[in-house]
Amino acid sequence: MKVIVIGNGVAGNTASSTIRRLDAQAEITIISEEIYPEYSPCALPQYIAGELGRPNVFLRTKRDYSRERTKTIFGQKVTGISPEDRRVFLDTTSLTYDKLIIATGSKPIVLPIKGMNLDGVFPLKSLGDADQIFHYTGNTAVIIGSGPIGVETSVALSKRGLQIYLIEVLDRIMPRVFDETPSSLLKGILEERGVRVLTGEKVISIVGNGKVEGIVTDKRRIKCDMVILGAGMKPNIELAQQSGVNIGALGGIAVTQQMMTNLDNIYACGDCVETEDRATGEHTLSLLWHNARRQGEVAGYNCSGVPKSYLGSENITSLDIFGVHAASFGSIEAEVNQHQDIEIIERFLGKNYYRLIIAQSRLIGAQSIGDAQDMGALLCALVRRDDLNEIKQAIDKRTLPLNPLYYRVARCLGPNIRRF
Amino acid sequence: MPKMLVVNYDKCTGCRLCELVCSVKHEGVSNPSRARIHITKWEMEGIMMPMVCSQCEPAPCIDACPTNARSRDEHLGRVVIDYDRCIECKTCVAVCPFGAVSFDHVAGRIISCDLCDGDPLCANFCETEALQYVDASEINKRRQREAAEKLYESMRKFTMAPVGLDSGSS
After folding, report:
1. Does A317 map to a domain?
2. Is residue A314 domain-resident?
3. Residue A416: band (very low, low, confident or very high) from pLDDT cuts 50, 70, 90
4. Chain A CB within 8 Å of residue B91 CB
5. Backbone angles phi, psi at A112, to 5 degrees
6. What pLDDT is recorded for position B167?
7. Residue B41 pLDDT greater than 70, yes or no
8. List of chain A residues whose C-beta atoms are within 8 Å of the C-beta of residue B85
């Protein structure tokens, strides 16, 4: 069986490793636009901060690929796919396949701001971007967009000694991951360390003569030497779309639970696909490492003839902000349908904080700052759609043998479960 | 067959000796907050719950690690960490269903049970045998025997027949 994998990220590599594990004879080729062996984009902020050496950003070496007998074509773009001939086209050549796995990942969302082409304006997606940011000299950086990547980059560059401005158009930082209260707590931690956080502010343009000299928002002008674009990622689907692959309503490649596209023998996995949320069943773009990894595994299994189903994406965020651990699972209150009856449990315990979002006796979201030891048990309850009332009853009546997960979920629900 | 660290939840008395010996062995100090095992207590109900890595397979912490820093050591049947790769994002801490992974603020690194390289000290010191390091196959047999004895007891009460415990065999 000849397999071609387009994309060298975690989805593509997990798919190819899975196929190799199941099929010693398969001929596997990974094609990537980038020149590097597999690396972790999640490690880039630590590299930029100077905390992680560049070699440790890589997950594979050329030797690892050859040990797995996986052929690689790096630094070349796939210009087209012909599903009828089962052929992919590169600049100067073409290759045939029996199975094709599209793992083209995602790319930064480009904002309609003037001045994007000035020197010193960087997206942060690839190792190439990170290298440029790492070596760029400057005193002040503006980061547009306060999602987890924007926040991690602010922390990283702040540790390098730059003055940072983090600008977010909505009213709080990490607006899709944290509700107002935890978001303010995290904003406080950033500000304590000298990061200037501006929420409810929109960047109109980037100004400078050849290189960045400043930015203009709807409220002020800020002098700076560097601008990082952190406005989110969207699936890289052009190649698939041109080839007749169906794209879903949210802009990601439409796949079945077996990671199959609408075209025979063509699979897709990773940031380029849209999936169902495991906890809610809703369609979602959940462009996260662990989802991409698992999708790659499922694609690899099915490609090799072993049936496996993807159970859905899990919305998990975890980051370290100047030594404080912030984590969030599932939905936040602000994004829940207003008509739904929801209950919020919110607790401060010393330096720790957590917030549970409960709908119809089921946990649909959890956020924590500080000690996240109980979050894992809550994640299980969320994903399994456990009925929290049943958990409380099982504990009160001791109808089940001691189940540590139930106890740990229950203690987050509060003292009201104990009756003396 | 590799051995497993088995937790018998009903036998834990909350003495926390396991936490002390674990921190002494790994960190050279007697500091329960730096142990790889933690006892969570519900004092009023008398429930003491040891929280320690179950060496899961597949492990949520391995699946979620964004730099492949966590992996399985098949020889001892445990999950290990490559500190060169770890970026301390603490996703493993957040996703572990048992809260068994933690961040040691003193040493500045992620910690979880490594089975003391094959001779877990906590199991050695646990007087009530709430923690045991046993052959994996032995656990099944033991549980079957325990369940069978309970069933035997209830059958005995119903029938009132004078039977000795040794006439059962397994």
Report:
1. no
2. no
3. very low
4. yes
5. -80, 65
6. 53
7. yes
8. 43, 56
User: For residue B145, how many other CB atoms are within 10 A of its CB?
Assistant: 12
Identify any residues that bridge with A214 across adjacent strands, giving them in sequence order: A207, A223
Q: What ipTM does this complex have? A: 0.88
- Mean residue pLDDT of chain A comes to 93
CB neighbourhood size of B50 (10 A):
25
Task: State in words which class domain B3-134 has.
Answer: alpha beta
Write the pLDDT tens digit of every residue in A231-244: 999 999 999 999 99
- Look at chain A and report how many structural domains it folds into: 3
Q: Does B88 touch chain A (CB under 8 A)?
A: yes
A40 in contact with B at a CB cutoff of 8 Å? yes
Is residue A418 scored above 50 in pLDDT? no
Residues 6 or more apart from A50 whose CB is under 8 A from it? A159, A160
Least confident span in A242-246, A402-406, B136-140: A402-406
Owning domain of residue A413: 324-417
Q: Compute the average pLDDT of residues A223-234.
A: 95
Domain boundaries, chain B: 3-134
Q: What angle do CA A288, A60, A64 make, to 5 degrees?
A: 135
CATH value at residue A158: 3.50.50.60
B65 → chain A, closest CA residue: A290
pTM here is 0.90
* DSSP three-state, residue B147: helix
A143 with A281, same domain: the answer is no
* pLDDT at residue A33 in the model: 95
Pick from B144, B112, B147: nearest CA to B5:
B112
**DSSP-derived pairing of the beta strands A121-123 and A226-229:** parallel
pLDDT in tens, A96-131: 999 999 999 999 999 899 999 999 999 999 999 999
Residue A274 has pLDDT above 90, yes or no: yes
Q: Give the nearest partner residue to B49 out of A329, A375, A407, using CB atoms.
A: A407
